[in-house]
Design brief:
The protein is α/β, with parallel strands linked by helices. It folds into two domains: 201 residues, Rossmann fold; 97 residues, no CATH class. The chain is built from eleven helices and eight strands. Strands 1-2-4-3-5-6-7-8 form an eight-stranded mixed sheet, sandwiched between helices. The longest helix has 18 residues.
Length: 316
């Protein structure tokens, strides 16, 4: 079974101003002359981590990672202003142009798969290949499953903690109730909401519980950006014109080599969404990992993702 490549450090870091307000952290790792690949992190609001560099052969890839608006090392932290899917798609193009890259491999999981699809469907001529994991399209049924009713039936214990900050009378629209607290002026209500929102996601992300993941997600600054930016995107439907916009745009990218990897027991992004994408895009390699949940760090999922990036080394 394939594992992540050894840890590496960037050979270059950049600060890229993309608007009057926002400045992005961008880094490059691996081989400067290699096949360019951009890692699109999850959340939105999650930020890139040092292990995200390790899905790619550093002797073959020029690995580009960036923290999306409002999170990680990008500034201002946790900002919701000028922060939409289409702002991020435009940011990816600015990064590509700034780094002098003609075309690149695009790798994204969870929300990263959403943004990767949105980018590829907007700029198909800039994409060599796609590696997608934990497919998420921000459709109402997907959001309802995770934040209103569905995953709650599988994890009732963790769900109780998610419900705790919200009074009973507001629980008919949990995302709306969270949004009011995450964007409100009461600092204690905001803190409780960020902790509960991020903790819920962390506790159900892996097939086997991982206290280290919960601790990382619920660290104050990380939780604040993750909860606020996710909720901002989700109550706005991902800023898409219609729920099936990404599915309906697949014909624009069906010619692009692609691999889709999905955990069978993914509670955050249920396998049905990946299956629908597979049915619309039969040319893409598709694999369900039978002993995995949502996280890219689960052994079976890591194995398939590294196999996919190995396969696309030197992609034309």
């Amino acid at each position: 079974m394939r594992e992540l490549y050894p840890p590496i450090e960037p050979f270059a870091t950049h600060r890229l101003r993309v608007s009057y307000l926002h400045e992005l952290h961008v880094e490059e790792c691996g081989y400067p002359g290699g096949t360019p690949v951009v890692f699109v992190h999850g959340g939105p609001g999650g930020g890139a981590s040092i292990d995200d560099r390790r899905f790619f052969d550093p002797a073959a890839y020029r690995i580009v990672l960036f923290d999306q608006r409002g999170c990680g090392r990008s500034t201002p932290h946790s900002s919701l202003d000028e922060n939409t899917t289409w702002d991020l798609v435009a940011d990816m193009e600015r990064i590509r142009e700034r780094l002098g890259i003609e075309r690149w491999v695009v790798f994204g999981g969870s929300w990263g798969s959403t943004l990767a699809l949105a980018y590829a469907e907007t700029h198909p001529d800039r994409v060599r290949s796609l590696v997608l994991r934990g497919i998420f399209m921000l459709r109402p049924l997907e959001l309802r499953w995770f934040y209103q009713e569905g995953a709650s039936f599988v994890y009732p214990d963790a769900w109780e903690d998610y419900l705790a900050p919200i009074p009973v009378e507001e629980r008919g629209d949990l995302m709306g109730a969270y949004h009011r607290r995450l964007t409100g002026t009461d600092p204690e209500a905001r803190r409780a909401a960020t902790h509960a929102w991020a903790g819920w996601e962390a506790r159900v992300s892996k097939l086997q519980p991982d206290p280290r993941l919960v601790a990382r997600y619920t660290e104050a600054a990380t939780a604040d950006a993750l909860a606020r930016i996710e909720c901002h995107y989700f109550v706005n439907g991902g800023f898409f014109d219609r729920p099936d916009q990404l599915l309906d745009g697949v014909d624009r990218i069906r010619h692009i080599p692609a691999a889709i990897v999905q955990g069978r027991f993914d509670m955050c992004c249920p396998v049905t969404t990946a299956w629908e994408l597979h049915r619309r895009w039969p040319e893409a390699a598709f694999e369900i990992v039978q002993d995995a949940g949502h996280s890219a760090s689960e052994p079976g999922t890591t194995d398939r993702l590294v196999a996919a990036t190995d396969r696309f080394r030197g992609a034309p």
